[in-house]
Amino acid sequence: MNSGHTVGMRNTRVVHYEDTPRDVVTTGNEYPPHFVLPRHAHKRGQLLYAATGVVTVITDAGSWVVPPRRALWIPPSVAHEVRMSGTVSTHSAYVRREAADAIGLPIHCRVIEVSPLLHALLHEAVDLPAEYALDGRDGRVMALLLDELAAMPALPLNTPLPRDARLARLCRRLLDAPALDVDVDAMAQQAGMSRRNFTRLFRRQTGMSFASWRQQACLLAALTRFGRGESVTRVAVELGYGSPSAFTAAFRRVLGDAPSRYLTRHGRDTGN
Questions:
Q1: Is there a contact between 129 and 3 (Cβ–Cβ < 8 Å)?
Q2: Cα–chain-centroid distance for residue 230?
Q3: Average pLDDT of adjacent 10-residue blocks, the chain of 272 residues
Q4: Angle at 125 between CA 120 and CA 126, to 5 degrees
Q5: Which residues pair with 40 in a beta bridge?
Q6: CB neighbours of 83 closer than 8 A, spacing ≥ 6?
Q7: CB 59 within 8 Å of CB 42
Q8: CA angle 201, 203, 206 (to 5 degrees)
């Protein structure tokens, strides 16, 4: 392909480009509210960037929430489902396994910050042809994209799922309707376990106490609801917090900022 005359890769299915002889290829896509991409996997690793909107990705290992101007690294061959909150615009970079290994990208899913430079590189890359010239400007853009991707810090925006089938089933159900008042004793009973065995196994398989996991599930659900335009007050009450201020305090403690600041610094207003 000639980069001077080839249409870029916006709104393109990457399946047609998995075997392109380039370390990284990019696509850009637009999705309507509530759109779901059914479970699938890629031979390449995928950097899924939410340029606008909020994206939730679910794998066998857990659930990851990607707010606007953040991204999720999905390693090669990891089966995943993608759910859109609000109108979503994505840029994706698909990285060959060998290239991902060479720059030290993780072998597990990870939400990352996106620097202004990485944002600009992704925006530029989606308009490049699949077989861009390696020895020209396009090739340098893609090489710098990989370097910048490898330098991005991770964000605590996932809720892990336990491996035990009983616990995983209960946790998936709770992820669909998280609430602070879900009781650990009720969860243990539904799993057919004593409270002690439940809490011990849960911590061993998720790395978190059930109370911390439940709060993380609520906070990440809040992000998806903000993506649909819901207010902080409504979300706080419906998740079971005593007041919007209690919710805001928990949100700041776990995610490092108040809900309104967390999203508005990337162009999103949560309301009041």
A1: yes
A2: 20
A3: 42 73 94 94 96 94 93 97 93 96 96 96 94 96 97 94 95 93 94 96 96 94 89 93 93 85 55 40
A4: 110
A5: 80
A6: 34, 35, 36, 37, 55, 56, 57, 58, 224
A7: no
A8: 105
Name the residue with tokens 């409504």.
234
3-state DSSP of the chain: CCCCCCCCCECCCHHHHCCCCCCEEEEEEEECCCCEEEEECCCCEEEEEEEEEEEEEEECCEEEEECCCEEEEECCCCCEEEEEEEEEEEEEEEECHHHHHHCCCCCCCEEEECCHHHHHHHHHHCCCCCCCCCCCHHHHHHHHHHHHHHCCCEECCEEECCCCHHHHHHHHHHHHCCCCCCCHHHHHHHHCCCHHHHHHHHHHHHCCCHHHHHHHHHHHHHHHHHHCCCCHHHHHHHHCCCCHHHHHHHHHHHHCCCHHHHHHCCCCCCCC
Token pair of 153, please?
A: 């810090």
Whether the CB-CB separation of 53 and 86 falls below 8 Å is answered with yes
